[in-house]
Amino acid sequence: xxxxxxxxxxxxxxxxxxxxxxxxxxxxxxxxxxxxxxxxxxxxxxxxxxxxxxxxxxxxxxxxxxxxxxxxxxxxxxxxxxxxxxxxxxxxxxxxxxxxxxxxxxxxxxxxxxxxxxxxxxxxxxxxxxxxxxxxxxxxxxxxxxxxxxxxxxxxxxxxxxxxxxxxxxxxxxxxxxxxxxxxxxxxxxxxxxxxxxxxxxxxxxxxxxxxxxxxxxxxxxxxxxxxxxxxxxxxxxxxxxxxxxxxxxxxxxxx
Length: 256
Hints:
Structural class: alpha/beta
Shape: globular
Number of helices: 8
Largest sheet: 6 strands, mixed
Distance between the termini: 43 Å
CATH class of the domain at 1-85 and 197-256: Alpha Beta
Order of helices and strands: EEEHEEHEHHHEHEHEEH
CATH architecture of the domain at 1-85 and 197-256: 3-Layer(aba) Sandwich
Strand content: 25-35%
CATH superfamily of the domain at 1-85 and 197-256: P-loop containing nucleotide triphosphate hydrolases
Radius of gyration: 18 Å
Helix content: 25-40%
CATH topology of the domain at 1-85 and 197-256: Rossmann fold
Strand order of the largest sheet: 6-7-8-3-9-10
């Protein structure tokens, strides 16, 4: 793995909102083709970190490299080119209620890439098959699907353009354990098929152990541990140990 090129690298990334210092120097490096899952409690900066990578938020300081190229200072045209490398599975799937399922999957192809609707429709049907959805679902609307099926649609949309980097934001939130495991299995299979690099954030430790090659924990705006998922139970870090075992007692305390 040491000779594998780095796909995504964050160095000293900081972001504050007024007096609230959310990111206080985040350092992360993800080699090409690896799956990194970032864990940490609510409000520790996981979502802000991903938004910084996506360019939705501009960091106050630091560097974010994609394929060795600095992205923070990019203009709109350059940013659009880099964004073509990204796919995203949002928390709660975040589907468009007014669009049919195939249109949701093909949204980025049509709106972002100017693809003809007929071509995008065929790609959407192929991606639906990849996530275990039948063609009959294509003409339905999100409200007609279960939570698990909506997640499958969200995954199909995330991989529709065969992205090089995929972000997963709490991919199993709100799902029962069996459905969550099915979604995790689909994520592993589809990521492997694409050879994609992934960055995920989740509280679900079963999901972490299923989809991660490597794990990092963020605490008070900094990465306090980063290593292979196989070492997760033997980190020697009391913060990680408390979090992965869900214990009330430990150095992590709830804010009053």
